[in-house]
Amino acid sequence: MTIGSLFAGIGGIDLGFEQAGFRAIWANDINKNACKTYRYNFPNVNLYECDIRSLDPSILQPVDVLTAGFPCQPFSVCGQKKGFADERGNLFFEIMRFADVLQPPIIFFENVANLTEHDNGRTFNVIHNELVSRDYAIRYLIADACDYGIPQHRTRTYIVAFKSQKACDSFRFPEKCELQKHLFDVIDKTVKGKDRYYVSEGSYEHNRLSAAITDDKQIYRFSDYGIQASKDGISFTLKANMGTWKNRVPYIKDNFGIRKITPYECLALQRFPNSFKFPDIPIASAYKQCGNSVCVPLIQQIAKNIFKLLDAQLFG
C-alpha cells in the first residue's frame, strides 16, 4: 500500500501511515528546512522541494492514498481566518488538481478544528462539494489528541475521502482511549538539559515564571494574556509560533531549574519515535517544525483502519 504526501512538512503524517503498513513513495513541500528534516528521516522517498503549484502531477506515480496536511493558518482561530481569500487557503484546490490526475482511491486530509466552522460552515461545504463532484464520499472527525492516548491538547479535523461508497460506509475512526502517559512520563525532569535552555536567575523571564509556577507537574508558557499553565499533566497545543517568538516555547521546572523544553521534547509530545532526528538546522526552525506537525499515533490509528479497507479490497 502506497502514499503520496502533499504539504509533507517533516513527515509526521507519512510516519503515521508507514507505522500502519504503508510505504511513502513521493512527497512535496516548499519549506527548505522542513525538506532537510524530511530527507534526513525519509532518505528513500522521492521528495519534490518546490511550490506545489509548479509540480506536474502527471510525472508522479499513482498511489493508494493521497495525503495532505494543507496550510491551516487561513482557517485557524489563531490566524486571520481569511480562508479561501488567503492565497494559502486556495492551495486546497491544488490538492484537487492532483486528485484529478492521479485518481487515488482515498484522500486523507488534516487541518485545524475550526475548519468545519470557518465562514459559518461555507468553507467546509466547498471542500465537501469539491470532493463529492469527483465522486468521493467523505467521513470526518474532530478530535483532541489527549482523548487518544497522547498527553497534548491538540484538536484537529481529519477527513478521509473514498472513491468507494462501500469503503466509506465500512470505515471507522479509532475509538477514544484513556490517557496512560502524562507530561512527565514523556519528559524526564531528572535529566539535566543543556545550559542554553535554562532561564537565568534574576532575569525578567525567571522572575515571572518563578511566581507563576505553583505546580511543577505542569508546563507553562507566555501568552498574550500572561503566563499560561497546563492542567492535569497534559500539554497545551504546541504551536508553530515557538519558532518565531522565543518566549512562546513552553517552560518546565525540572530538578535543576526553570527551562524551555527542547525541540526533541516537543517531538516527544507529538509522540514521534526516538529514532526521528533533526539535521543541522536552526533551532528556531526545529521548534516551528514541531508545532507545524501532527500527533503521530493518532495518524497511525486512522491509517490502520484505512489499511484494513484497502486490504479487504473494497475498491473496484
TrEMBL record:
<dbReference type="InterPro" id="IPR029063">
    <property type="entry name" value="SAM-dependent_MTases_sf"/>
</dbReference>
<keyword id="KW-0808">Transferase</keyword>
<feature type="active site">
    <location>
        <position position="72"/>
    </location>
</feature>
<keyword id="KW-0949">S-adenosyl-L-methionine</keyword>
<dbReference type="GO" id="GO:0032259">
    <property type="term" value="P:methylation"/>
</dbReference>
<protein>
    <recommendedName>
        <fullName>Cytosine-specific methyltransferase</fullName>
        <ecNumber>2.1.1.37</ecNumber>
    </recommendedName>
</protein>
<dbReference type="InterPro" id="IPR050750">
    <property type="entry name" value="C5-MTase"/>
</dbReference>
<dbReference type="InterPro" id="IPR018117">
    <property type="entry name" value="C5_DNA_meth_AS"/>
</dbReference>
<keyword id="KW-0680">Restriction system</keyword>
<dbReference type="InterPro" id="IPR001525">
    <property type="entry name" value="C5_MeTfrase"/>
</dbReference>
<keyword id="KW-0489">Methyltransferase</keyword>
<dbReference type="GO" id="GO:0009307">
    <property type="term" value="P:DNA restriction-modification system"/>
</dbReference>
<dbReference type="Pfam" id="PF00145">
    <property type="entry name" value="DNA_methylase"/>
</dbReference>
<dbReference type="InterPro" id="IPR031303">
    <property type="entry name" value="C5_meth_CS"/>
</dbReference>
<dbReference type="GO" id="GO:0003886">
    <property type="term" value="F:DNA (cytosine-5-)-methyltransferase activity"/>
</dbReference>
<comment type="similarity">
    <text>Belongs to the class I-like SAM-binding methyltransferase superfamily. C5-methyltransferase family.</text>
</comment>
